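Sample entry (692 residues):
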Amino acid sequence: LRGHFDRVIFGQPESTRFLQQERRGFPRRAGGHGSCIRAGREGRPHGCLCPIHPGSCRKVTWGPAHPVGSLERVPIKMQHFIMEPLFNAVLFFFFPSNQIFIFENNIYYCAHVGKQAIRVVSTGKEGVIFNGLSDWLYEEEILKTHIAHWWSPDGTRLAYATINASRVPTMEIPVYTGSLYPTVKTYHYPKAGMENPTISLHVIGLNGPTHDLEMTPPDDQRMRDYYITMVKWATSTKVAVNWLNRAQNVSILTLCDATTGVCTKVGEMSQMNEEPIFSKDGRKFFFVRAIPQGGRGKFYHITMSSSQPNSSSDNLQSITSGDWDVTKILAYDEKRHKIYFHSTEDLPRRRHLYSANTNGNFNRRCLSCDLIENCTYFSASFSHNLEYFLLTCEGPRVPMVTVHNTTDAQSKNGLEPCNSPEKSSQAGHRDVAELPMQILKPATFSDTAHYPLLLIVDGTPGSQIVTERFEVTWESVMVSSHNAIVLKFDGRGSGFQGTKLLHEVKRRLGLLEEKDQLEAVRTMLKEHYIDKMRVGVFGKDYGGYLSTYMLPAGEENQVFACGAALSPLTDFKLYASAFSERYLGLHGIDNRAYEITKLAHRVSLLKEQTFLIIHATADEKIHFQHTADLITHLIRAKANYSLQIYPDESHYFSNAALEQHLYNSIVNFFVACFQVQDKLPMAPLKEEEDDD
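Predicted structure, serialized as tokens:
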């Protein structure tokens, strides 16, 4: 492999979740496509090096082989391999000499290809102490990536997190297949109220003798137990760190000196993972924070922080304002004094690309509005020199990509469009209590016919299900092939509509979401083309919690004939500490919120509704324990339920065949439900004959 590093990339984003599962010992079935040079020890897959060819690394099978350089002599299990600094692997290539790799949670550094690797961090312990990598909690709920190390811009320093899970209770996952007797996989999983992993941030100097320095956390009594939610280098010697207390109501943004370890508070961030954008000298930066905007509460807007000469405090200026959200800051052009960002200024369900001046009156301009016909949902990425940007149209039309000059967004060059099928459904939008609703109707829709109604719920606080992104999903099959009408609705607790709406569900999950979703359904039931006897509901994860919560709704005048839940949350004290405590408070201090949100209190109301539960037995995120607990209550309630399991499969299904089986099962369940209900309107006629 020597001399070919300019042709490989490491740890593709779409495969990182599989890498994390392998580190924890979860089974990974063969699958994926593309040509890969693999890294790891035979029989213990842990890495993959992929040639850069279009589409060759979309999905990665982690398999056996040997690492490169001086380590060719010893086969090892490599957890992670990365060059510094990692640029966009699709558009921009950087050919550095420095490399690091992580083995047994220790970090190794190699100054040049072929040189002897040096172990620069040696405190790691597999499955317990993580250096430069996330444990389960940080990957899934905090950092949202398995990577927990960050190169300085000049490549002379490496910041890395040390996550110690030694005091965190372990979860045991049974593995039923592949051996005569079942085996058990264990990993540290903090549930609500239990011990959390501890975290510290370190910086190693790699230019000369290595020196490890820990960054000092804020001196604040509220930060005795904290998360690190964001790390971003501002300059080659300054690193920005966001600290969040365990109760998740205090967030402190600091700028840490990589040469001394001293961290200075520079502000407070409202979003956990949003990275600030810095000027080259680090004296000015931009970040998103919640700003009051009237009766709808706060909205997320760009704030510019500028350091002042001879002053210990920074000057803060709001670049944007209004009852809409900035969803992401993309780039800062110092030469032109412009900041680029995505926002919902047009409508919450849309995403457009905007620029704003960072001096003068902060004028902003929409760069994507009316640019491409029938496209209102965009994402963008900028070249390193900010001369060009890629603009991806994500819907409602079939996705396409265009290349634009930053100085003239109207001029564009089209790239080959995505090979995606045309959407066969028609989408209409309407409001209930001024909240967004999306209705998918068959292409052959007639208002003289009668259609079943399927409600799709997500409801995860801060999420958004009603958007104008192009999608072809199993719900599309229900619409196009089975003449169902699909309804989606963003009620209280959803994102991008102000913090007042978002925070209303805090400490009472399920209660307000049910009211809003039922209001949307009942509004649809007033339409004469909806068959009131054929109404179903589906949700996954938190949406599975809501679909189960809502299924008995209506009591005597029940609304739903059937419902399905995929990997449902059933009891928040059984779930990850960071998520449950964010919305229900610290378990053990006041447990009332946990008690009233249990699904056990709801399933006793189930009558004749048919209910399908689907769960993988090796689900490492929402354990099968949730479903097992739910089933005990369903049996007591004599509920009409069926259970479908996927033995030894994880939360994120690992191959297309399993996913196809899963979605076929869901479609078949609702098709059967809606067909059986055709006979129900005959029941009243029989009663009239008896009366005669």
